Amino acid sequence: MKIAIGCDHGALELKNTVVAHLEKKGYEVQDFGTYTLDSCDYPDYAAQAAKAVADGVCDKGIVLCTTGIGVSIAANKVKGIRCALLSDVMSARLTREHNDTNMMALGAGVVGQMLALEIIDTWLSTEFSHNERHQRRINKVMALEQD
Predict the structure, then answer these.
(1) CATH code, domain carrying 119
(2) Per the structure, how many domains does the chain have?
(3) Which of 9, 98, 130, 134 is labelled catalytic?
(4) What pTM was computed for the model?
(5) Domain residues for 68?
(6) Taking the CA of residue 110 as centre, how many other CA atoms within 13 Å lie in the half-sphere pointing to its CB?
(7) Is residue 21 among the annotated active site residues?
(8) Which residues contact 77 (CB under 8 A, 6 or more apart)?
(9) Residues 95-108: pLDDT tens digits?
(10) Is 134 a residue of the active site?
(11) Tell me, what's the pLDDT at 147?
């Protein structure tokens, strides 16, 4: 599985930890930056990661900033993306089972390193339920992009 990842300067340290963790687990990671602590604009990096997922270059994506809010909003502006802002393990599991999310966002200032890795592992290992009611709701959400 190939994972797109992107962050701003506020989450660089956590992103680097996540990349190392994912590679150790055997995932292929495409890192869209940022690569320095210089102040930067989170939409630039979140959009690149989201476009890679939407275009099928990557299977799933993870975006990070200080709160996770900005990158999740930016990623969700890309057609075909369902990005969930996560800060707990239960939501990580349920957003995959019920919403079939293809991206997730984390706030480096909200979750610590250990919790972040647990959230990511749960999100990546949980499959979509394929329950009819969940698919029906996803279809309705995705249809909103056509309006």
Answers:
(1) 3.40.1400.10
(2) 1
(3) 98
(4) 0.97
(5) 2-146
(6) 15
(7) no
(8) 47, 50
(9) 999 999 999 999 99
(10) no
(11) 74
